[in-house]
C-alpha cells in the first residue's frame, strides 16, 4: 500500500479552541473526525455542520469516522461537504456495498469499520468496494482507552487477504495507539494510524506525529 499515515483524532483536542488545535497537527496526513450519535455508541459529538467548519479550517484533509446508526442515510452528507474519506461501521449499515459505491461516486474514499467483536472475514467480500478498512483496537465511543492487542491476529488475517487479492486498500487502526503500541499494529499490517491522546496530549503534537511515524516505520 506504500507509506504510513498518522491521523490525529480531534476527539482528544480542546473543542473550544479547535482552530488552534488543528494548526498544531499540520505534520499529519489526515485529521480523524469522530462522529457519534449516542445510539450506535454511548457518546455524542457533532454532525455535518460542525464537520464542515472543521474542514474549512483544517490544514490537512478530513478522515471522517462515523459511529452512527443508519449510515446509509447520513454518510453521504460528509462526502458532500468534501471529506477526503468517510468510514462507516459494518455493524450499522443496511447496504454497505451500495453505500461504499455511493461515497466513491461522490469523490470520497470509502471506508468500512469493524468493532472488536466483529469478525473481519465478514468484509472480505467487500474489499474491492472500499478504499480503507478500520479495525477498531478499542470498543468505539471514547478516547483514552487501552489498546487491545488481541485484535492483532484479526488485522493480520485482513492484511493477508488484502495482499492475496493484490488490493491497495489502506488498513487503519484506531484506539489506544501510541509509542508503545504502534509498532505491533504496523507489524500486523496496519499502515494508517489514528491517535488521539498520544498526539493532542503531547506538549508538541507535530513532534509526537513525527515520533509515531518513525516508530511505525521501524
Ligand atoms: C474511539 C474513537 C477514536 C479515539 C481514539 O471511539 O474512534 O478515534 O478518538 O482515541 P485514543 O487514541 O486516545 O485511544
Ligand atoms: Zn475514530
TrEMBL record:
What cofactor does its activity depend on? Co(2+); Fe(2+); Zn(2+); Mn(2+)
CDD domains on file: RPE
Q: Please, which domain of life does this record's source organism belong to?
A: Bacteria
Residue positions annotated to bind a divalent metal cation are 32, 34, 65, 174
User: What HAMAP family is this protein classified in?
Assistant: RPE (MF_02227)
Involved pathway(s)? Carbohydrate degradation
Gene designation per UniProt: rpe
What is the name attached to this protein's record?
Ribulose-phosphate 3-epimerase
Q: Which InterPro entries match?
A: Aldolase_TIM, Ribul_P_3_epim, Ribul_P_3_epim-like, RibuloseP-bd_barrel
Q: Which Pfam families match?
A: Ribul_P_3_epim (PF00834)
Which residues hold substrate? 9, 65, 141-144, 174-176, 196-197
**Family matches, as NCBIfam families:** PRK05581.1-4, rpe
Q: What are the alphabetically sorted keywords of the record?
A: Carbohydrate metabolism, Isomerase, Metal-binding
Q: How is the cofactor bound?
A: Binds 1 divalent metal cation per subunit.
By its UniProt entry, which Gene3D superfamilies does this protein fall under? Aldolase class I
Enzyme Commission (EC) number = 5.1.3.1
Which reactions appear under catalytic activity for this entry?
Answer: D-ribulose 5-phosphate = D-xylulose 5-phosphate
Task: Tell me which family the UniProt entry assigns to this protein.
Answer: Belongs to the ribulose-phosphate 3-epimerase family.
Per the Swiss-Prot or TrEMBL record, the active site comprises: 34 (proton acceptor), 174 (proton donor)
What does this protein do, in the record's words?
Catalyzes the reversible epimerization of D-ribulose 5-phosphate to D-xylulose 5-phosphate.
Amino acid at each position: 500500500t506504500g507509506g504510513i499515515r498518522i491521523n490525529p483524532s480531534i476527539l482528544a483536542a480542546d473543542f473550544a479552541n479547535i482552530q488552534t488545535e488543528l494548526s498544531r497537527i499540520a505534520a499529519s496526513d489526515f485529521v480523524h473526525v469522530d462522529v457519534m450519535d449516542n445510539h450506535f455508541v454511548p457518546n455524542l459529538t457533532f454532525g455535518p455542520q460542525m464537520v464542515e467548519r472543521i474542514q474549512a479550517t483544517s490544514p490537512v484533509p478530513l478522515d471522517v469516522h462515523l459511529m452512527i446508526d443508519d449510515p446509509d442515510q447520513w454518510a453521504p452528507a460528509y462526502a458532500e461537504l468534501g471529506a477526503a474519506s468517510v468510514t462507516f461501521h459494518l455493524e450499522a449499515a443496511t447496504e454497505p456495498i451500495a453505500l461504499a459505491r455511493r461515497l466513491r461516486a461522490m469523490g470520497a474514499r470509502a471506508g468500512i469499520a469493524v468493532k472488536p467483536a466483529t469478525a473481519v472475514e465478514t468484509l472480505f467480500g467487500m474489499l474491492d468496494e472500499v478504499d480503507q478498512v478500520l479495525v477498531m483496537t478499542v470498543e468505539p465511543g471514547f478516547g483514552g482507552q487501552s489498546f487491545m492487542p488481541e485484535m492483532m491476529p484479526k488485522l493480520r488475517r485482513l492484511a493477508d487477504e488484502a495482499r492475496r487479492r493484490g488490493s491497495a486498500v489502506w488498513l487503519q487502526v484506531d484506539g489506544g495507539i501510541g509509542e508503545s503500541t504502534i509498532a505491533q499494529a504496523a507489524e500486523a499490517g496496519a499502515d494508517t494510524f489514528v491517535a488521539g491522546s498520544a498526539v493532542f496530549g503531547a506538549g508538541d503534537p507535530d513532534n509526537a506525529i513525527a515520533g509515531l511515524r518513525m516508530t511505525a516505520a521501524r
